[in-house]
Amino acid sequence: KGGGGEEEGDGNEGENDKLEKEEEEQAKKEDEVPDGLLTFSKDINCRKVYVFLQQTVAALSPGNPELGLKLYLQIANSADRCALAASRSGSKEGPEFSAVAYEIMAQAFLLYEDDVSDSKAQQRTIVAMVGTLLACRTFERDDYEALITKTAQYAAKLLKKTDQCKMVTLCSHLFFTGAEGDPSAVRSHPQRVLECLQRALKIADACSMASPANVQLFVDILDHYVFYYERKNPVITDKFISGLVALIQEHMGNIGFDSSAAVAEARAHFSQVIRYIKQKKIDSDTAEWFAPIVC
Predict the structure, then answer these.
(1) Which residue stretches does the UniProt record annotate as biased composition, category Acidic residues (predicted)?
(2) What Å distances lie between residue 157 and 117, 153, 193, CA to CA?
(3) Were both Cys, which of 6, 175, 185, 251 would link to 192 (CB 3.0–4.6 Å)?
């Protein structure tokens, strides 16, 4: 029995020595890892991370669709940035990240259609969609076309006419992302910008009949016309701006001495836009371009 105990003790000591040796080797390996780098025991790639994120948001979305949708948009923006970084570094993974971004955006759109029903939440969501789409840079042309067209359709189907007008006007930015010579301008569609603004004008006209305070919608649209005109959108001409200025002046005259806060705000905004145009008529760099505008 004594001999057996000694043998057992020797065996335990040998096992302990083995464990200590393994721990020393592991510690040595860890010492060799540069500071700031993490090591993982499993092979994890970015695609798996995005799948996990997508599944997590899908599980959270039923309880709060608006939050889930915004998380989808953030994930899509992250994937787009990965695609951009990959393309700049010469990596072949760029198209894969871009495809992930599109898939996540598609999930966000489905969530909007199925679960976001409150009109104010819809408006906030469309604003977030537009911001995300303008921030993304790596979508394939057809994918981008599909996404911005769908977003514009959402804007045109909002319940309230005033919300429709504001969001359709905002969506015009999706079709003109840069100026001449800007690399991002390859996705610009000047004519569709005009179509958005013209549609917004029709909606604003209907709204102005319901309430004089809605003249603010015309002023917002004028502000956008001036924005695109200054950036040399070829289909936004001085005649559109001059005509809209005259229309707003007519509406302001019909309103008379309405002292409501909404009308006062519209008057102040209109005056600010007119001052801006007149200043551009004076500045040497822009005087010739803005000279034809009548205000």
Answers:
(1) 1-14
(2) 12, 6, 18
(3) 175
